[in-house]
Amino acid sequence: MRTSTRLKSVVLGVALLLIAPAVVAQVSWGETITIVEHDAGWARMARLPDGRWLAVTTHFHKDRPTTLAISIGDARARNWRPWSMVAEPGRMIDNGELFVMPDGRILLGMRSLIDGKSYRLNLYASDDQARSFQFLSTIDANEAPAGRNDRGVWEPVLTLLEDGSLSVLYADETLADGAPSYNQVVSQRLSSDGGKTWQAKQAIVKQAGGGHLRPGMPVMARLKDGRYLLVFETCGDDKHCPVSFKVSADGRSWPEGLGILLPDQRCGPQIMTTTQGRTFVTSCQNEVSWTDDAGEHWQRIAEPAWPFGFRHSWPAIYQTGTHEIGVINIDMGSARVRFGRMDPAATP
Question: Which 3 state secondary structure label does DSSP give 3?
Answer without folding.
Answer: helix
